[in-house]
Amino acid sequence: MARPNGSPIINCSNGSVYSHDPQLSTWVKLSEKWWSEGSDVWQGRQRTSASNQSNGGHKGVIAVIESGVSSSGGPDEKVVAKARPEWWTTALTLGHLETRMHAARLLDSQAEYKQALVLYAKKIADEGFRSKAEELIKELRGPIYYRPGEDRKDWNPTVVGLPKRDLLKDVLVQFARSKTLTKLAMDYQEQLKQAANEE
Predict the structure, then answer these.
(1) Cα–Cα distance between 116 and 69 in angstroms, integer?
(2) Spatial distance between the Cα atoms of 137 and 24, rounded to a whole number of angstroms
(3) Cβ–Cβ < 8 Å for 59, 115
């Protein structure tokens, strides 16, 4: 199967789903059963996903992929029942959302990219991960000032056709709700306002 943008989707018998990323010149995983073992946002755990509701009842491509992985058999109960450290679910959820965002970018699924990004920001905010928050902010904000002669093509201002700085506003709303990230969010919200005024 191939997406309208030409990205192929390969379903393997082990429950993993792949596509080819031309920018990386390699095959990448879009989804796998591993995420079902503890991710808070695994599609199989949710009766109605936000992406399904936001698409007027039509499932997005990532939701369809994850539903297919879920229907190919659940995780090994012995593995699921195994004692895990406290950080296990958080780490698995963040990794799952990072994979989902990459998959949505590769398959050109705007609504699912935005949904995964907001969930990712919320999880970072809930856990108070400042370094991850700053990394995400800088990726979406891009450079504010350029030096004379500096190449402005190093940073792409959009992702899956969505303006990154518009997405950043949604991310900052999530960070502003966190006890540990409120100041960080407010500082960058002010910085965005100043940059918009100068433009």
Answers:
(1) 18
(2) 23
(3) no
